[in-house]
Write a structure and sequence with these properties.
Elements (H helix, E strand, L loop, with lengths): L2 H12 L5 H15 L5 E9 L5 E10 L5 E3 L3 H9 L3 E3 L17 E8 L5 E9 L7 H16 L2
Antiparallel strand pairs: 1-2, 1-6, 2-3, 4-5, 5-6
Helix pairs in contact: 1-2, 1-4
The structure holds methionine sulfoxide (SME).
């Protein structure tokens, strides 16, 4: 499926649904169904502990059970969130501090999601068992996809 059609299908899926968790759940299922060669697709959401510490907490996803908490600035997800920039990692084993939730993961894309005021509220995370699975075109398509998800939250 081309990214344009893909984005349109997602828009239809989340349109006028007032339940963020439902939209994140369907978005992760949609990605996992339609993007080939993935072993994990889902979301981590920004949360605060009672101590005030900011972290990422596991949200809706498809794939194997995953790490529940990711410290801010740690791993691919925590780094993308803290630096507020998309990350495409061709070989996760080369990424300093990579958190291996599933040993099968070899490459990864993480895209920050933003709230209405532009603040980072979570990340979209895709893992593949293939090294260098994601192209620049994939990254661009997934960034557009993330914008649609943000609007639905
Ligand atoms: N590998 C990620 C952790 C999340 S799992 O891939 C689902 C990371 O380094 O942030």
């Amino acid at each position: 499926m081309g990214y344009e059609l893909w984005e349109k299908s997602l828009r239809e899926l989340v349109r006028d649904v007032p339940w963020p968790v439902a939209n994140l759940a369907n978005a992760s299922a949609f990605i996992f169904e339609t993007v080939e060669r993935l072993n994990w697709a889902g979301f981590y959401l920004v949360r605060q502990k009672e101590s005030g510490e900011t972290l990422l907490v596991l949200g809706p996803f498809q794939g194997r059970p995953a790490c529940i908490e990711i410290p801010w600035g740690r791993g691919v997800c925590g780094t993308a969130a803290a630096q507020d920039r998309p990350l495409k990692v061709d070989d996760v084993h080369e990424f300093p501090g990579h958190i291996a939730c599933d040993v099968a993961s070899a490459s990864e894309v993480v895209i920050p999601l933003h709230g209405k005021d532009g603040e980072v509220i979570g990340v979209l995370d895709l893992d593949s068992p293939e090294k260098a699975r994601f192209t620049e075109e994939d990254l661009e398509g997934l960034i557009r996809f993330a914008r649609v998800i943000e609007e639905s939250l």
